[in-house]
Amino acid sequence: MGRFFAQRLTVAVLVAVTVSIIGFALLRLSGDLAADLAGEDATPQEVAEIAALYGLDRPLHAQYLSWAGKAISGDLGLSLFTGEPVADLILERVGVTIALSLYSLALALALAIPLGVAAAIRVNGWIDRLALTVAVFGQAIPNFWFGLILIYLFGVVLRWLPISGSDSLAHFVLPTVALGTAVMPALMRLTRTGMIEVLEADFIRTARAKGLRPGAVLFKHALRNAILPVVSLSAVSLGFLLGGSVIVETVFALNGIGLLAYESILRNDFPVLQSILVFVSLAYILLTLASDLINARLDPRIRLG
Amino acid sequence: MAGPVPLSDGRQADAGCASETVPPSPRAVMLRRARGHPGFLAGAGFVALIVLLALFAPWITAFDPFEQNLEGRLIAPVWGAGGSWTHPLGTDSLGRDYLTRLLYGARISLTVGFGAALISGVLGSAIGITGGHFGGRVDAVVMYLVNVKLALPGILIALSLVSVFGGSLIALVAILGFLFWDRFAVVTRSVTQQIRSQDFIAAAEAVGASSARIVCREVLPNVMGQIIVVASLEMAIAILVEAVLSFLGLGIQPPTPSWGLLVAEGRNFMFFKPYLIVLPGFAIFFLVIAINLMGDGVRDITAPEGRA
């Protein structure tokens, strides 16, 4: 276990460092940031002053090291647009994105697990076909468009729910549906495949043969074994949702870090954008690391194989 | 048909008793499976239809996708009040024929989907096969690259890159192509690993074939089916992501008709002209479903079990 953990941690740290370099370098691609910041009719001298002020005149690796060093101590610099500390901006709004991601994952699991189990009980039965159809539709529906359709149906025609903003829990309902649909199909398919495999195993036949109730066989014996990959996909999905919520947040004007990232792109506010990119990547790395470790703890084949 | 019939593998068989004496060639088996696969037929048929509509758009519609007509703005489709067959799907807020805009929009989606899948397919397969074939340190580097790629938030990176490089068609294809190679790498790597330990690879090595020759002549043909399946999936994803980028105003720029952009343009009018967002949305939706069905079909058809 110790060796497995050390190995995974090393890879995770390496990946995290690389990702932070990419996140940092990405926004330096756009050309002369100092000239952009100084404005169109700035003199060369003003541009040079701006460059010196933000440290843009130093070599890239020096810029990265000083940025990363400060970032580790929580100083992510100042927003070019509002002048506020980037860390404060992100902390203010990250709660909304985390809440939206958790709600969406919960909704997706609440649909995916029962549907996947029911589909696996009779392969090619009508529930199975329905489940696969739902998966095909869920995978293909454009997120942003589904959001607009939900706004039109439930916010405008039926007037049941608020369509924009993040003031109350009701504001999260439609975004949760729009975002949850994106991750549901994969979770459902995985539950279904896992259950089909487990239901064919010998110990299930034994459990049935000794006269256990079908419900107990299904949920106590089969699901417990089939759920493992679903748990790790959930962790990965959560990481994906944190970064993927930008679309839904934009459509519903939900005030999370996705919307903040989008606004920062439009405003060329690179300190904010690069911090969000790195933040979301690190969250993903931590979540996958956690899921690897949980899996290894539960299944000795993984840590020893 | 009389006389000998050439089989696809070059052997000759007697037409009358071919099915009894010679096992059907893999190609014949696949063709038969394809014919009996409704999902594949429906998906492939719909994709073919969209490709034809996109190719022959100038002959299908009499209008120009950019031509504005300020006196004929927001005309309803033929089933709506005031609609007529002149503009079967109505007009947009600048009086441009909506059917024409949608037909030309298909060109963008198909180009982006195909181009991005091609780039990411070549890149990802090269990375994955290299890792799977050579193993050891090379494979460790490949897995590290895949892990880095997976950790980066795809949509946010795509948005940032598009804002830097602009929303031209070529930039979009390149950016999406370089963003979505990871699944190709993961799939080809694991298939290559499985093939690696089989006898025909050992045989090729024993007769002194070079790594390059083994990869091209022995490994690649056996991985191709999987690559095509992943390619269809990635094509669908690229089409969806292009639509999102264009919808958010950072992808294809007006007045070029992209389906995502049409949804964005229709958004301001969606409360009283819902067809403006419903139609392009369904276009994306159905194209993506069709491509996915086609990909699932290819997976079933090329599955090795039962192959003669």
Offer a quick outline of the entry.
The complex is a heterodimer of chains A (305) and B (308). Chain A is mainly alpha-helical and 305 residues long.
Q: Please, could you describe this protein's structure?
A:
- The complex is a heterodimer of chains A (about 300) and B (about 300).
- Chain A is mainly α and about 300 residues long.
- In chain A, about 80% of the residues lie in helices and about 0% in strands.
- Chain A has 13 helices and no strands.
- Chain A has helices spanning about 1-25, 35-40, 45-55, 60-70, 85-120, 125-140, 145-155, 175-200, 200-210, 215-250, 255-265, 270-300, 300-305.
- Chain A is flat and about 85 Å long.
- The model of chain A has no long low-confidence stretch (mean pLDDT about 85).
- With about 300 residues, chain B is mainly alpha-helical.
- In chain B, about 70% of the residues lie in helices and about 0% in strands.
- Chain B is built from 13 helices and 2 strands.
- Chain B has helices spanning about 20, 25-35, 40-55, 55-60, 100-135, 135-150, 155-165, 170-180, 180-195, 200-205, 210-245, 260-265, 275-300; strands spanning about 5, 10-15.
- Chain B is elongated and about 75 Å long.
- The two termini of chain B are about 25 Å apart.
- At the A-B interface, helix 1, helix 6, helix 7, helix 10 and helix 11 of A face helix 6, helix 7, helix 11, helix 12 and helix 13 of B.
Secondary structure layout:
The complex is a heterodimer of chains A (305) and B (308).
Chain A: H1 2-26, H2 33-38, H3 44-53, H4 60-72, H5 86-121, H6 126-140, H7 143-157, H8 173-199, H9 202-209, H10 214-251, H11 257-267, H12 270-298, H13 300-304
Helix pairs in contact in A: 1-12, 5-6, 5-8, 5-10, 5-12, 6-8, 7-8, 8-10, 9-10, 10-11, 10-12, 11-12
Chain B: E1 4-6, E2 12-14, H1 18-21, H2 26-35, H3 38-55, H4 57-60, H5 98-134, H6 136-151, H7 154-165, H8 169-179, H9 182-196, H10 199-206, H11 211-247, H12 259-267, H13 275-302
Antiparallel strand pairs in B: 1-2
Helix pairs in contact in B: 2-13, 3-5, 3-13, 5-6, 5-8, 5-9, 5-11, 5-13, 7-8, 9-11, 10-11, 11-12, 11-13, 12-13
